[in-house]
Design a protein that fits this description.
Blueprint lengths: L8 H6 L2 H4 L2 E4 L2 E4 L5 H20 L4 E4 L2 E4 L2 E3 L3 E4 L1 H4 L8 E2 L5 E5 L6 H14 L3 E6 L4 E6 L3 E4 L4 E3 L7 E3 H5 L3
Parallel strand pairs: 4-7, 8-9
Antiparallel strand pairs: 1-2, 3-6, 4-5, 6-8, 9-10, 10-11, 12-13
Length: 179
């Protein structure tokens, strides 16, 4: 029995919403990414609210959640993405998959994820051209930063801050204690 051809980004773009929802395209295969918990969604929504307000007020670009991007032929939708004004011209509101990568991608470890899988994803994001990737681990109360300038593990008293969003910062512990 012949195997079906791997899916392309254009194939993924044409999938019905019901099939594409909660899926990413990895090496031509659909991968289920459903199952975020309330605590995951709450942290994502809190951080996106803070970032959106600050980025919009300061005209720094666009902050969006769960938007899918083309990462070198794979389709991923980071929990939170940011891209600056130079990339805004590439955004196509009618496409499911944006044909560029964000400047900043943030992933939150969820119940169905492993840190190892998200660390691998973060390396893939960086290889595809993302300047900075953050992985937030609620269980360990740590943030992992992957960037050109530095890579680091951050704890409660450290700051979530990015040179891509000048002037914005929040204490890591305050992110995890927001409830």
């Amino acid at each position: 029995m012949p195997l079906a051809s791997p899916l392309t980004i254009d194939d993924f773009e044409r999938l019905p919403d019901a099939l594409a929802l909660n899926h990413e395209l990895v090496d031509g295969e659909l991968v289920d990414v459903s199952g975020n918990t309330l605590i995951h969604n709450d942290l994502r929504d809190h951080l996106i609210s803070l970032l959106r307000e600050y980025v919009k007020k300061n005209g720094l670009g666009k902050v969006i959640s769960e938007q899918e991007f083309d990462f070198g032929g794979n389709v991923y939708g980071p929990d939170i993405s940011f891209y600056g004004p130079p990339k805004m011209a590439f955004a196509d509101e009618k496409r499911r998959v944006q044909r560029f990568v964000p400047d900043l991608a943030i992933e939150i470890v969820s119940q169905n994820d492993t840190f190892a899988r998200l660390a691998q994803k973060a390396r893939g994001y960086r290889k595809a051209g993302v300047s900075e990737v953050w992985v937030l681990d609620i269980e360990s109360r740590q943030a992992f930063l992957y960037a050109d300038e530095r890579s680091a593990i951050l704890y409660d008293d450290d700051l979530f801050a990015s040179n891509l969003i000048p002037g914005f910062s929040i204490r890591i512990g305050d992110l995890f204690d927001r409830r």
